[in-house]
Amino acid sequence: MYDLVLRRALIAEGRPPVDIAVAGGTIALVGEATWPVLARETFDCDGLVVVPGFIEPHLHLDKALLDSVAPNPEGTLAGAIEVTGRLKREFTHASVRARALQVLRWAVANGTTLIRAHPDVDPIGGLTGLDVMLELRESQRHLVDLQVVAFPQEGIERAPGTHDLLREALRRGADVIGGCAYNEADLDASRRHIDTVLGLAVEFGVPADLHADFADDTSDGRFALAGAIAEATRRHGLGGRVTLGHVTSLAACPPAERAEVVALLAEAGVAVVALPATDLHIGGRGDARAVRRGVAPVRELLDGGVVTAYSSNNVRNAFTPFGNADMLDIGLLLAQTCHMGSPSDTARILRMATTEAARVTGVHDGYGIHPGARADLVVLGTRRHADVLTDRPDRRLVVKRGRVVARTVRTTELLDGPDVPDAGVSGGPSVSGAPGRPAAVRRARVA
């Protein structure tokens, strides 16, 4: 007997729907099941798109939902760090947990089945955020997998005592060592920061995930270190185990210089995670005209063979006063701001939220929709992969390890006269299942 069967699931454009059968948290069959099938639970997708569970590879759960407490009136990176630094002094385990759990549950409802969380580790907040994430990693594992990053937001040399805290965080069970290469006093200190972080990765046998090059240009060398990180990755033998978040200043480099850095990243096996919601909000603040977009050159990174994903980064705080931890919302924003509007671009962005993000987080073995893969799946309320971003579809079902953990059922009809035919639209746009989003009418008729 199967635990769950998804009937007539569309898993690839241009191919007929298939049945997906799950047993023991693992996909047992992808194809045509022999009916009648014995299953504890069956759901007829009727041709709806089914994708692997979304992955948020860069999310600051510990700092989420702080904007209502103290916003960032300047809207700058320096202002966000200053505001958050003040608020961190008042963090308690209970307050961090409540905010983090709220956003974690939003993410699950929106189809996310793995989150890489980056709690701050520094002398201001100590290990409070990290301890909360370690606890949530265990208590919420039935809903979502949580990878915990020990993240030195305030720098290492700039914040004495941070190095010891990072080591303690790793001893307590952090999955990843983080870095913030630009938040040191000068370029030499930033380079030492990189070597310290990668040295800890080697010592403790964990991946490294650094915030890097988060600026509008490269006039300050602290924001032009992606190539140096690639070289350091090779020196430390960490190919395939290092990720960079932001990397916005790369877009400001001349094309030949960009191509050189992209090639270095690809050769060294360094991944990049774009964070468009934050990068667009904070970037370009000093531009009076021709305001820069401030997003990593995603298309060039993908074309150059760099493993590239995207993520929400922050949700409603001093760094990003928006968001619902919805990967399709962020994917749509990325498409709109990076000139990625074709069906093939949509397919790329969907891979960035799934298979590419799985490579970033190191879970690509056993991920996807095939026999033997983990049964982390999302049933979307749309019937074409090409419409996944523009439809903003309901997450009809979210499946974690073969168990349905979230369900969205919505029916909206316009009541302004006789029934209006669907005009051939199948599935159609829909409201997201994210808590916190108003229930606006997005389709004329939904069955």
Shape: globular
**Uncertain segments:** 423-447
Strand numbers in spatial order across the main sheet:
6-7-8-9-10-11-12-13
Strands, count: 16
CATH A-level architecture of the domain at 54-360:
Alpha-Beta Barrel
Quick check: average pLDDT?
A: 93
User: What structural class do the secondary elements suggest?
Assistant: alpha/beta
Q: What is the terminal-to-terminal distance?
A: 31 Å
**CATH-derived topology of the domain at 54-360:** TIM Barrel
Q: So, the CATH homologous superfamily of the domain at 54-360?
A: Metal-dependent hydrolases
Largest sheet: 8 strands, parallel
Order of helices and strands: EEEEEEHHEHEHEHEHEHEHHEHHHEEE
Quick summary:
This protein is α/β, with parallel strands linked by helices and 447 residues long.
Salient structural properties:
alpha/beta, TIM Barrel, globular
Provide a descriptive summary of the structure in words.
The chain is α/β, with parallel strands linked by helices and 447 residues long. The chain has a domain at 54-360: Metal-dependent hydrolases (TIM Barrel), CATH 3.20.20.140. Helices cover 30% and strands 19% of the residues. The chain is built from twelve helices and 16 strands. The protein has an eight-stranded parallel sheet with strand order 6-7-8-9-10-11-12-13. A four-stranded mixed sheet has the order 3-2-1-4, with no helix packed on it. Strand 2 and strand 3 form a beta hairpin. Helix 6 runs parallel beside helix 7 (255-268) and helix 10 (327-337) packs across helix 11 (343-353). The model is unreliable at 423-447 (pLDDT under 50).
